């Protein structure tokens, strides 16, 4: 029987998986897959370009409308929501999820501790999933930046050209 037709109750009713989802890769897919396995209905929060810039100091490479369409098309996602405010509790007031999913790179950090404390006040659990260390949007961005840099001419070739 398919997951959608299953009568097995999942630990959570509505889950929320926020992210920039820039340069969509296997780490993003893993988070969404794991999140959907824990809830009956999964909402993916796609961070706006402005919010991503505020949080990471740079705008995503892929425009919001395209990131939103990519995430909406993932079979584990029931709905996609554009996240436009930095306060996750404000997002919760709009979406009303009972669990938020994050990569475990947040666990034990000041931002993770704040997230847990904030959501404890409204009865929302924070569940961490393993962060995919071998692939990240930051690594992909660095590789793309390196590919776009002009190659320095080799000294022997430069001498021949004179």
Largest sheet: 5 strands, parallel
Radius of gyration: 20 Å
Give the H and E element order. EHEHHEHEHEHH
Measured by DSSP, the beta-strand proportion falls in 15-25%
| Side-by-side strand order of the widest sheet | 3-2-1-4-5
Helix content: 40-55%
Low-pLDDT sequence parts = 1-5
Determine the N-to-C terminus distance.
72 Å
SSE class: alpha/beta
How would you describe the shape?
globular
Overall mean pLDDT: 85
Q: Helix segment count?
A: 7
Structure description:
With about 160 residues, this protein is an alpha/beta fold. Helices cover about 40% and strands about 20% of the residues. The protein contains seven helices and five strands; from the N terminus they run E-H-E-H-H-E-H-E-H-E-H-H. It is globular. The termini are far apart.
């Amino acid at each position: 029987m398919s997951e959608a037709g299953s009568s097995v109750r999942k630990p959570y009713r509505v889950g929320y998986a926020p992210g920039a989802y820039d340069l969509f890769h296997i780490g993003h897919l893993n988070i969404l897959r794991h999140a959907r396995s824990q809830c009956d209905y999964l909402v993916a929060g796609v961070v706006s370009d402005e919010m991503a810039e505020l949080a990471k100091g740079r705008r995503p490479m892929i425009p919001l409308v395209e990131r939103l369409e990519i995430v909406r098309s993932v079979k584990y996602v029931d709905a996609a929501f554009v996240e436009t405010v930095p306060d996750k509790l404000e997002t919760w007031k709009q979406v009303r999820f009972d669990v938020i999913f994050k990569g475990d790179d947040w666990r034990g950090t000041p931002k993770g501790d704040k997230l847990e404390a904030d959501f404890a006040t409204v009865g929302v659990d924070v569940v961490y999933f393993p962060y995919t260390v071998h692939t990240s949007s930051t690594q992909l961005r660095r590789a793309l930046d390196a590919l776009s840099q002009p190659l320095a001419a080799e000294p022997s070739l430069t001498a021949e050209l004179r």
